[in-house]
Design a protein that fits this description.
The protein has eleven helices and nine strands. It is an alpha/beta fold and 305 residues long. It folds into two domains: 138 residues, Aspartate/ornithine carbamoyltransferase (Rossmann fold, 3-Layer(aba) Sandwich); 144 residues, Aspartate/ornithine carbamoyltransferase (Rossmann fold). It is globular, with a radius of gyration of 19 Å. The model has no long low-confidence stretch (mean pLDDT 97). The structure holds phosphoric acid mono(formamide)ester and norvaline (NVA).
Length: 305
């Protein structure tokens, strides 16, 4: 018999709607257990290795704490200390790590790096952010939306700012969950059509218009990790794209505001928006923990009867 192919989560489109619905239901249960201090150790003796080629606060903390809470262990590796920083091929790293550990999370630069890594892994690989995708964050964000407002199907989500990893994961999510994106990015920072296979979005030159009637207004840093050299140039190009009170006023009266964090108040978001009553940024951050525990559980144990 041929072995079952290994299930990875390298981009949002790797899962079906039914799989996401299952993971979201499990995340609700796992979150409740956590809040009730209920011991839940389905992953005793399992080890997660986390490979970071870029900085992180939330991703490291949520994966490491989450694996511990599930009864397993997590190991943190970065480029500086591991042999990856000295040129060991990712293919070799994938082979070696997957012989010692049960599941792997990778945060790196190009998507092709994590794909090569996964192609050489015997165990599931999770994308903890690449230049092109950030699927765990969008999973947490959708879970957060569902908690606050119910189903996201048929809703309108505004994306204001850079065409970056977060936007590409949101675009893939729109296709799977059946919602619409209103996208506004500055000239020269357009969506790369080779990364998108959905028609579920409308492009607006004016960010104010993109907010019209939105049920969720979303933004992110103007300069993502790896693009720091472009920072000064980007600050100029993104002038007018700050999510501020006038933009939130164009959205639906009950619109939520999201930002995956870290944020820059006074750049991509005004302080009175991110710290205001419509903002759910702390819930988004917390929910990384709960959805990733459900994701790891699903990748390692499959559907629990
Ligand atoms: N949102 C997010 O992924 O945060 P970190 O970079 O701190 O992990
Ligand atoms: N787009 C940002 C997200 C950080 C969590 C980046 O890639 O740096």
């Amino acid at each position: 018999t041929t072995p079952k192919p290994i299930k990875h989560f390298l981009q949002f489109s790797d899962f079906t709607l039914a799989e996401f619905e299952y993971v979201i239901e499990r995340a609700k249960i796992i979150k409740r257990k956590f809040k009730n201090y209920e011991v839940y150790h389905p992953l005793i003796d399992r080890t997660l290795v986390m490979v970071f080629e870029k900085n992180s606060t939330r991703t490291r903390l949520s994966f490491e704490a989450g694996m511990h809470q599930l009864g397993g262990a997590a190991i943190y590796l970065n480029t500086r200390d591991s042999q990856l920083g000295r040129g060991e091929p990712v293919e070799d790293a994938g082979q070696v790590m997957s012989r010692m550990c049960d599941i792997i999370m990778v945060r790196t630069f190009g998507q092709e790096i994590i794909e090569r890594f996964a192609a050489n892994s015997r165990v599931p690989v999770i994308n903890g952010l690449t230049n092109e995708h950030h699927p765990c964050q969008v999973l947490a964000d959708i879970f957060t939306f569902v908690e606050h407002r119910g189903s996201i199907a048929g809703k309108t989500v505004a994306w204001i700012g850079d065409a970056n990893n977060m936007l590409y994961s949101w675009l893939q999510a729109a296709e799977i969950f059946g919602f619409h994106l209103n996208v506004s990015t500055p000239k020269g920072y357009d969506i790369d059509p080779t990364l998108v296979a959905t028609t579920r979005y409308t492009f607006f030159d004016n960010p104010l218009d993109a907010c019209e009637g939105a049920h969720l207004v979303n933004t992110d840093v103007w300069t993502s990790m790896g693009y720091e050299k472009e920072n000064a140039e980007r600050l100029k190009a993104f002038d007018g794209f700050m999510v501020d009170a006038p933009k939130m006023a164009r959205a639906s009266a009950d619109a939520l505001f999201m930002h995956c964090l870290p944020a820059h108040r006074g750049e991509e978001v005004a302080a009175d928006v991110i710290d205001g009553p419509q903002s759910v940024v702390w819930d988004e951050a917390e929910n990384r923990l709960h959805v990733q525990k459900a994701l790891i559980e699903y990748l390692l144990l499959g559907e629990i009867a």
